[in-house]
Queue: 2 jobs
Job 1
Amino acid sequence: MFRNQYDTDVTTWSPAGRLFQVEYAMEAVKQGSAAIGLRSKTHVVLACVNKSNSELSSHQKKIFKVDDHIGVAIAGLTADGRVLSRYMRSECINYGYTYESPLPVGRLVVQLADKAQVCTQRSWKRPYGVGLLVAGLDESGAHLYYNCPSGNYFEYQAFAIGSRSQAAKTYLERKFEKFTESSRDDLIKDALFAIRETLQGEKLTSSVCTVAVVGVGEAFSILDQATVQGLINEFEVSGEEGGAAAAVAGGGGGAAEEGGAAVEQEAAPMDI
Amino acid sequence: MPKEHANWSPYDNNGGTCVAIAGADYCVIAADTRMSTGYSILTREYSKICKLADKSFMASSGFQADVKALQKVLSSRHLIYQHQHNKQMSCPAMAQLLSNTLYYKRFFPYYAFNVLGGLDSEGKGCVFTYDAVGSYERVGYSAQGSGATLITPFLDNQLKSPSPLLLPAKDAVTPLSEAEAIDLVKTCFSSATERDIYTGDSVEIIILNAKGVRHESEPLRKD
């Protein structure tokens, strides 16, 4: 990105009406390893790529259980993500204590967004450098939200964030129309296909990805490695090419990066 | 000048009795289901037992509003523990948490007389007994509440080791079988119901063992 005289602190506007510190925080999200989410009418699946610093270290935890009916996947500064997950858990527990019922997901994401907004309007703070995919179930059904560092949030049928997420997004854009009626297992398979897209040729195994599910009658849980590997083996054996346009997606992903930079000149990313 | 007395008390006693017995590989937690105030009965079907964790059940008599608040606080704290440690709290850990929570309100106590029962990390039965401000002790059996004074001497007779001075030290947990312990509990409650006006209606029994949790209910005299 570009360095200029209006990006020193978050409380300085640029002449074009942008807050560069917030945009830089969104960059941090794009640098993190990929996380994707997709939902049907009854289930929401979160999946993420686990990259460890070296072969000797364990990988970062990127998916957190927030409550029985809510889970979150993060991309970006994982420490910020951990702190926000703790906040979300605390909010769910307090709501449950007061109202003896689960916190509606829509309420939680608004609280999260407001918390992020505060950091964009205080000179002694910095924006959270993490994007959150919040998956949850409430009375109005299954939901998937994306919370940005800017304080904006959107609801999605399916979404991907982090590095090389464009490849996953392209796959999801092709398939999303059938997600609403998908079964739980098909949804998980699609999540794994989307993750495979972001790996750009690297072999998909359960040691590089984490998958979590929440659904009607199913509390949020992270699937164990053996189960995930089993699912991967199933579709690799059957030779399913969920990402049939893998080569096209790779080329399309490259073009999209440059297209994205050109777009920034016209409209600030957070307005989209 | 003689001290003025309050014309209102923040506390009420809803009566009832709670008992727990620890076995070699099981634990029995029981409480009657009568809730009263003064000489009146509020309901005949109120549960005084709360599941705090997979292997920890708490039975509390006293002021049920305080008991309910205490149960909620402990449940929330357990949720936090599970998020942080990715596992359930052990019964001895829950016992310490309960003690700390009670002492936290040392100067405006929870009017709750608790008995915590469960399985420890070795699978042996454990029972912890408390006063209202958190003083606690691990024991082989305990009774709390309005019928405690009637039940405890009977349990001492049936379960207590001959003398703490005898060597080798006899284990606190009873050698009785699960079925014998359940029967003993039912006998305790039938007897207490006879003479304690605040105990009766029915007794709710929870049995915890390696296989899981079981519920039993036995009717008691309604007078």
Job 2
Amino acid sequence: MGFNGTSPLLDQRGELRPEDFGAIRELSMNPIGDRIISAFFSPGKETVDFASFVRILAHFHPTETSRSRDGVQPEPANSRTRKLKFAFQLYDQDRDGKISREELLQVLRTMLEMQVTEEQLQSIAERAIQEADLDQDDAISFDEFRKSLEKVDIDHKMSIRFLS
Amino acid sequence: MAALWTLSLLLSACLFWPACLALTPPAELPQPHNLPPSLGFNSSDGSLSVDLPMALRVFSVDYHHVQAPFEIVLWIMLASLAKLGFHWSGRVPAVVPESCLLIMVGLLVGGVIYGVRHSAPPTLSADAFFLFLLPPIVLDAGYFLPGKLFFENLGTILWYAVLGTLWNVLGIGLSLYGVCLLAPSSLGDISLLHCLLFGSLIAAVDPVAVLSVFQEMHVNDQLHILVFGESLLNDAVTVVLYKLFESFLRLPSVSGLDVLLGGCRVLVVGLGGLFVGLFFGLVAALTSRFTSRAQVIAPLFVFLYSYLSYLTSEMLHLSGIMAIVTCAVTMKQYVEANVSERSKTSIQYFLKMWSSVSETLIFIFLGVSTIQDVHMWSWSFVCSTLLLCLIWRATGVLLLTAVVNKLRRNTVTFRDQFIIAYGGLRGAICFSLVFLIDDFPKKRLFITTTIVVILFTVFVQGMTIKPLVELLDVKRKKRALPTVSEEIHSRLIDHLLAGIEDVVGYWGQHYWKDKFEQFNKKYLRRFLIRDDHQAPSSILRVYQELERRDQRGDEEAPPLVDTRSDSRPLLPEEMDSIRRILSRNLQNFNNKQTRAYSRHTLHQDATMDRTRKPLHRHQSLGERYTFNTQGEDGEFSGSRRGRAGLSRSHTVCSMSPRPVLQDSSVPGATSQTRGLVDPKSSAARKEQISPQHQAPVGRTPKKQLSFVSESEKQQ
């Protein structure tokens, strides 16, 4: 579908609005679909222009490990940290830099829509926070998030080879 | 120690019993060696008995009566005791893989029998191998195949299996022919077709050998699945090429058309095996749906249908291995959902047991069959075959990987490539196939060469691959179980990727996986699974256990004191069930028929009756976030029906027995209006919406997201 086919209004405005995303059928069936959509929009803004759209999608470019990096160059959008940050922000809707228990519970509920009772959800969330929370503030900061995913191959998981 | 001695005594008893029986002069002449000899002894005497003329025999031994099953059981007993013995023998299993040890035992037994009988010991008959010994192993492999990993790497595996095997076969065949041309004195009567035939049977990587060696190595999952998947799928190519060259040998001449037809046959054989397996897998799943009243025989159906699929495809000259693997992969999820926990455990245990026995028997017989009179040795042929096998495999892997790495997300490193090339072990399939060749003067040379290649690959390559893996520092399997948070985050990322692929319109892996899971959920699972409620019960049990342990743990030590990261590791079953829930829900989110546990009801759970049934998933949660209330029954329907064919998914209100249906439905509705907003404002919203409780039903509540403007437009 791509950016240019999403909305007939696009040619006039050159921008996307949330309802354009809503037209994507499969995305609306995704349990975190609305979170993904809101991730495209900067907080407070209601539209996203093409440049920002591409910038978001750049997170999913496969990481090139062979690229040489000097300290001056800003960190590329598809680095592991940036990918993780993107995922982190899916949880952290209020952008306070931490995943609180409530935010985690919300995500868990959408993902486990029907199967478990509230108690089980609570205990899963409790377990997850227990495992990840090192400074014991009952919330998961970005560093703790990153640490809990250190064994997972994020570069592989969060890449789509369409932008090459 | 005493136990060990008893064990070895038993073992030697098993060894010598058949030998003693063989001491008595055989009743019939031993059969010529070119025909496939039968399993077990084929000539044995009659009965021994105490000879009392004209009197009642008080004690008599009638061996002849029970000979066949007795000998079979003895061989199996020998195999199993040998296996037991190895695991008790200290450090030996760490260095030498089990397959090597078993072959050595076989060699020993064969030598003993040869020494006692002065004739060749029984060899592995091709029929017995293909019909009885191979299916359990392949079934076990297919049943426990890591499905997700397999399908992710399917392209690469097929690439290696089909093209790699072709490359190997043609390469080895043609170069062997070159070698034969170079030494016309001894090898002159081997024609090109014979060489190609030999190439086709020697080039194939054997799943049995690969499994037995790689199992002990714990390399990273991707490497394992590549080698293993290749060994399974190359059966189609091997079978076709073998039969093709064999039929070419029988034809007076070979034309180009025949070659083309041969190519078509590969496709037919492979796909045919696949479809046969699919068919039987689905029928097995359907049958398992009705086994609730006779749970004891439920595992039997798994085995019967798989074996049936194997036999059917063998009957049709299709690829039996592909059929049985497909059958196992297809029926697994439905059968496991349908049968009870105990049946599931029985299935798994029996599979493991049978495949283990089979594998042990195969290797022992490989050893026994080596001791024969049929050997014909030719240094040039044997050595060149060995060398060519290695060379062609290495070059094949290198070339193919160079091409396939451009298309894969995850490249196959050089170390992995080396292991793939080095791990191409040959095994019993080659051995059986070589016995099936029509007789020609140099057949014995082929047999000898095959045995040498098999022994070389199993012993030399099998023994050295483990230290090589450590030396090259190949990425190993991650041993630790993932933590819950890792699992949750991974699932989130999977959902995220699926969503992004939808945004971009890219039909990637996630897209097809989603599509399949939708189809699966909508049609297959409803048809093939008896009752979808069965699964959560065991999970509920585990979770209650988890909570109980949590409580106990809290009593023992306050949570703040001990280091949280290594407090009480999760039991594997608990982890497993968490993982299963999460992965099942990756597949579930499309199902509008499921009674969704909406998060919105949670806030009311505290106030409302807990016994009420969970809400149905609101259809418009996936749509444009607006809906209208309609009528007395509180049915909601989306203002825009993007999906067709929905029947009952509109009922959002709770089916509570409470008489005040209208009022209870409205809070349900209004709570549905809330989207995924920050928790802080949700409390504020609650108060904001609650005045609507008194509002008339006809009012149109709105689902409010952070894009407030859009909903306000429609108000």
